[in-house]
Amino acid sequence: MQDFSQRGPRQIELMAQAHRHMPQGVAENYRYWGDERTVFIESSKACWLTDCDGRRYVDFRLGYGPIILGYRDERVDAAVVEQITQRGTLSGFATSLDAEVVQQVKAMCPNIEKMRFANSGTEAVMGAVRTARGYTKRDRVVIVEGGFHGLYDEMMWKSDIEHWDPTGSLPPSVIPFGGGIPGQARDLVELIILNDRPMLDALFRQRGEQIACVVLEPIIGNAGSISATAAWLQRLRDLCTEYGVMLVIDEVKTGFRVAKGGAQQLYGIHADLTTYAKAMGNGYPVAAFGGRAEVMDVVGSYKGGVVHGGTYTGNLVALSAAHATLKILEQTDALATIDRVGAQIRDLLGRVFSAAGIEYAFAGPPAMFGIHFTPTVPSNYRDWRVTNSDLYRAFAWKLIDHGVMLEPDSREPWFICEAHQALDLGWLEEVATLAMKAACEEARRTVR
Ligand SMILES: Cc1ncc(COP(=O)(O)O)c(C=O)c1O
Known about the structure:
single chain, 448 residues, Aspartate Aminotransferase, domain 1, Aspartate Aminotransferase, domain 2, 7-stranded mixed sheet, 4-stranded mixed sheet, 14 helices, 18 strands, 38% helix, binds pyridoxal-5'-phosphate
């Protein structure tokens, strides 16, 4: 029996060492879970992580979504190794693989006519927004409360939901994600509420002609997969068309995961521009933005063309990984397997919550579902605020203590990969039952 409840000796050592070399002792902010809890990983395989003290976890966090097949998938790794040992990583010149990967994307995503590459979701969003501005010759951008679009200044504004009083009449205030975001960036950004039709209509009536683009995740991968209704998304599509606004669908989390054609396939609605990253490369850093040819053709190195580029853009580590991953996703039933396993996991968790007498609702598709302790599925970020996210957090920590890795925040969905099909679901149900029991006991003690 592994003991997950105590800090391991190596974790203590690595954390102390890391503090001497990196702010907060981590390579990026989101990995810091406190000195006691920050996880140091030694290795990964299939759906498993092994930490620096040799403890094994089944992983539903999957690096915030990129792992779609499984860690160290031999089919993808072999293609990358062949590329880097036989042909090279980058030269700063074009290769035949560039258009080949775009054709693979086009075969699955009819919303893409032309595409360009990027190295991260953040960069893909920057490229899409700049292209939308270049095409429309407008500056304003609209985002949706609860969404996340990377670490780009104008996308770094959010509703301060934690300090908002849901029983009052005031909306949450809009704040930057943190320090270093210039106040001027706020002037170009509007926030709207998902599924709020009157707010959407009013915004377009008042400002429609100044808006370059609306950027959204129809299935909010950063708000527990709370999803747009088909009717609301269609209304948004229609208004964008009427006012000449670019609809940018951010499929960084949903792309090549919720369906071969991403969220747009599920809704049957096409964006003008789309961003991809994460699942596109099964963990290798590849991203892209693309869309209608007429819109994408404003990108170019001619006078007035939209600037896009970068030393590592379309590097061959990324493209060979994307090529191999997309081939598997297109030609095998990996995504159908993920859907089946995700639905089974949702069902077993539902049994655990019902047995514990907890009201719950799942949001989003089986490949990335959110769990909300509330009687009805939240329809926007403000609804999320009144879910019992404290109980979820306690449940998540208890799961981690039983060797199930996930983000201890109900805004992060459970990610499923193909390798989860080999998981013993009976064991998962057992540990989820124990974790729920412990979380409920803890909640009762806190109330007393
Ligand atoms: C929807 C969405 N867009 C953009 C990003 C930014 O991607 P990256 O972290 O690769 O920069 C993320 C990251 O989680 C995301 O979830």
